[in-house]
Amino acid sequence: MRINQNTALRGDKVTLVPYSSAHVPRYHEWMQSEELQRLTASEPLSLEQEYEMQRSWRDDADKCTFIVLDTERWSEQACGDEDCMVGDVNIFLTDPEDPTLEPSYRGRGFGKEATLMMMSYGVTELGITKFEAKIGQENEASICMFKKLNFKEVSVNSVFQEVTLRLDVTDQERQWLLEQTKHVKKKSYTEEKLPAGGLETDR
């Protein structure tokens, strides 16, 4: 999804930036972890397949992704994005006519803020009215976090070992979400960070 190709969302702990081809090698390195593959229900990909996936995330109208950076390290201007990466956060549009979105993350300690920021972006920029998260049953930390974000468990699939949680974005939920993310600053990614060694977004 190109809507976020020049968007940086800066929070207290994390900054969300568009997923560019320059992030792929580090991301690919992470995804070699069997534990991460298990927790995210992901299959190992070759580096070339990872580049193809990144292009798909950038171009497809039903997907939106950000790379999660450590705000403190990134703000120092001394290192490029790849040295500050701590995870990614994604939204999948399941029905463009009725935007039900599935946020997922691999936050490495920054998951709550990254997820709240992504949800707020989805509500304010994409018109999202409902979120759905599918999480592996053994990923108790993620299940617990989403429940703390007011998601309700709606089903358990024993075949896929997966729990589905849902959040309908009522006016009250929207206000709560905006209150939780009022500290977030939306900026131009290319203007925000282009030091020596910095990354440019894909064109």
Explain the overall architecture.
The chain has helices at 24-30, 34-39, 47-59, 71-75, 81-84, 111-126, 140-148, 171-180, 189-192; strands spanning 7-10, 14-18, 63-70, 85-93, 100-105, 130-136, 152-157, 162-168, 185-188. The chain has 203 residues and is an alpha+beta fold. It has a nine-stranded mixed beta sheet with strand order 7-8-6-5-4-3-2-1-9, sandwiched between helices. The two termini are 12 Å apart.
Number of helices: 9
Largest sheet: 9 strands, mixed
List unreliable stretches of 5+ residues.
99-108, 196-201
The run of helices and strands is: EEHHHEHHEEHEHEEHEH
Average pLDDT value?
84
Distance between the termini: 12 Å
Report the structural category. alpha+beta
The largest beta-sheet arranges its strands as 7-8-6-5-4-3-2-1-9
Please count the beta strands (DSSP E, at least 2 residues each). Answer: 9
Radius of gyration, CA atoms, in whole angstroms: 16 Å
Quaternary status of these chains? single chain
Q: What percentage of amino acids are in beta strands?
A: 25-35%
Shape, please?
globular
Indicate the percent of residues in helices.
Answer: 25-40%
